[in-house]
Amino acid sequence: MCNKNLPEKECPVCNLKFKWRRKWQKNWDEVKYCSEKCRNNKNGNYLSKNKFKNKANDS
Question: What are the contacts of 17-20 at 24+ separation with CB within 8 A?
Fold first, then answer.
């Protein structure tokens, strides 16, 4: 695949757009998160792109 024609998805945690990678070729349909960090924080520890919630302010 040419770099210009790679499919993209949007990460539901950080809203970052990420492109298809060769290591995902067998399971691209199941890929939901842009990184391990986002996959581990899928419970909503992000407020917006690359900004973590301050747990001290959640109380």
Answer: none
Please tell me whether the overall predicted TM-score, pTM, comes out greater than 0.70 for this model: no
Q: Where are the domains of the chain?
A: 7-50
Q: Which residue, 44, 51, 49, 47, is CA-closest to 17? A: 49
Going by C-alpha positions, the residue among 10, 11, 17, 19 that lies closest to residue 39 is 11
DSSP 9: E
Give buried/exposed letters for 32-49 (b at 16+ CB in 10 A, else e): ebbeeebeebeeeebeee
Task: Give the model's confidence band at 4: pLDDT under 50 very low, under 70 low, under 90 confident, else very high.
Answer: confident
